[in-house]
Amino acid sequence: MLNNARVTNLIANVIAIMAVIILIAGGIYWLAHRPMFNLSRITIEPVKGRVLNYVSPASIQATIAGKLKGNFFTINLDETKRVFETSPWVRQAHLRRVWPDGLLLKIEEHEPFAFWNENQMINTWGELFSANQAELNSESELPQFNGPDGSELLVVQRYAELVRWLAPLKFGVNEITLSDRYAWRVELSNDMELVMGRDPGADAINPHGGQGAVSFSSTIERFVRSWPILQNRIEGRKINKVDLRYTKGFAITYAPVDNTLPVDSKEKK
Length: 269
Hints:
Elements: H1 2-32, E1 41-46, H2 57-64, H3 77-84, E2 90-98, E3 102-109, E4 112-116, E5 120-123, E6 128-129, E7 144-146, H4 152-166, E8 173-178, E9 183-188, E10 193-198, H5 216-233, E11 239-243, E12 251-254
Parallel strand pairs: 1-3, 4-7, 7-8, 10-11
Antiparallel strand pairs: 2-3, 4-5, 5-6, 8-9, 9-10, 11-12
């Protein structure tokens, strides 16, 4: 009898505790799903030290339309972060809840560094991204980079080398192209083309290998050192192309000479 009473009391106590837990859980669930906790505002800010040039509330709204799930308590911040990062100009998004119905969204934008192939861009981290190029600042003058898939970091690296080597000559780089055979062509700011041949530094990503290729840095160094001497010899003629694929020199192609003489027309009085 005594044992039965103890078992009965234990069972009753367990049932009572479970009932209380269920009531509390139900109350929390009911409270957490009240309309006052529905997300109704998103505050957008740049990350510290940055500004937002391309991301707007309208572009964010277009990105998240119909994709956010949950309210202040139930929304999954990691999943929501990934949704925001699908917005074209957003490189990284940082989220936190703002009581009782909001989110604070801090954005790091892609900073465009160069155009890549036909319709992509490279940011200042050397990462590819796709966004509306028409939204670029009208004063933006980005170089054009071209290359096989997966070669963008190598192209960025070579561009940096070119800029450093060419600085004493006051040349900029308008376009740099790495062909499918991993050979370089460069268009300078004066429209002159440099043909530089294959790059042994591309061995890691070049399925054809780099046998017979000449060091990229030694090729451009040879051009830079020879340019002042060449300038003294060409007598002011414009050069269209410099072929640097030779090991001990290079070939130049002059721009066509316009031999048309100006004709003055005078009326007879």
